Amino acid sequence: MTDFTRSQIDRLGKRLRQNDITIEDRHLLDDYRRSFSSAYKKVLFVLGSHLGLAPTGRPSKSTISIVGKLRRESIRLSQMQDIAGCRVTVLGISEQEAAVDAIKSIFKKVSVIDRREKPSHGYRAVHIVAEMDGKLIEIQVRTQLQHLWAENVEKASDRFGGDLKYGVGDSRVISRILELSRLISVAEGQYSPNSNRDSEYRALLDNLEEILRDLSESL
């Protein structure tokens, strides 16, 4: 496997941003993506074995996603923090806070991006970037409702076109998904976990899940 210097990575990223992808650059990018595999597996092991969490994820971001991000954002390839990443889904806000605190405590080098108060085009979650063996691995921590919103926005993009999670597409669809995101935030903010309200929150989950799944049909 190729050993990369930071300057080599960034020169590759510059070519991917500006030009059509050559076969040589595709192979280089594939090597770079694979270089995250070992660190990714170690992060998954820590989350599962040490914290009792159940992460799901991908060992490397797709070529299309990497190139799209390079062309959409002012970022160097070496700075991209989600080449490899996983996701942890928990019930509600309190469980999310607990999971975030646990993850922060077990990894030596982490940075936290909280997208709940300042969502990205309606997307809410907490992203933790952990360093493992010199590689940056992204850990997304979502509540069930945040996850349902994100999954259904992807499905809406498949139907209506555009890239709705980045605010690109039919303005009517975008307005609807932003409103659903706001309603979810309000609902989760009103929920305080205790045994007396568990059934109430489950009912809320079921109701909003139905709304989200009917998103396409309701537009």
What does this structure look like?
The structure is a single chain. This protein is 55% helix and 14% strand. The chain has 219 residues and is of the alpha+beta class. It has two domains: 6-143, Beta Polymerase, domain 2 (2-Layer Sandwich), CATH 3.30.460; 145-218. The protein has a five-stranded mixed sheet. Helix 1 (6-18) packs across helix 4 and helix 6 packs antiparallel against helix 7 (171-190). The longest helix has 20 residues, at 171-190. The termini are far apart.
Secondary-structure blueprint:
Blueprint: H1 6-18, H2 23-34, H3 37-50, E1 56-58, H4 63-72, E2 84-90, H5 93-106, E3 110-114, E4 126-132, E5 135-143, H6 144-160, H7 171-190, H8 198-213, H9 215-218
Parallel strand pairs: 2-5
Antiparallel strand pairs: 1-2, 3-4, 4-5
Helix pairs in contact: 1-2, 1-4, 6-7, 6-8
Summary?
By secondary structure, the protein is α+β, with helices and mostly antiparallel strands. It has helices spanning 6-18, 23-34, 37-50, 63-72, 93-106, 144-160, 171-190, 198-213, 215-218, and strands at 56-58, 84-90, 110-114, 126-132, 135-143.
Question: Which key features would you list for this structure?
Answer:
five-stranded mixed beta sheet; Beta Polymerase, domain 2; alpha+beta; 219 residues
